[in-house]
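I'll show a sample.
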Amino acid sequence: MRLATIKLHGAEVAGIVTGKGILPVAALNAYKGTGWKEDMMSLIQANHIPGLTKWYNEGGKEELETIPGVVPNLLHLPAGCSFSPRCAECGAHCGAAVPELREISPGHLVRCANIPEVRHE
């Protein structure tokens, strides 16, 4: 098991490296109802890494690939919208091209073809 620290929403959080990217421990907790510490130092101090490693070795590695919330590898982003693999609103058009950057309100920019203000129907 490989752990990583990533910056997510301005905070440094612990994550588990998967084949698709990095799954934040917070996403694992939300999905499984577990209570692992969510930053690397706290994981170490609370001695949670041995338990997390045991879960990983006993089937967790395979389960990780099915849990939503993976932060994609920035060196290997998917075609089209980079959020498409983890977006509940993803459609066939999302993988076709990177959505155009649009301003939907003053100072609020988006790159999503599924927001009504942006959608071309």
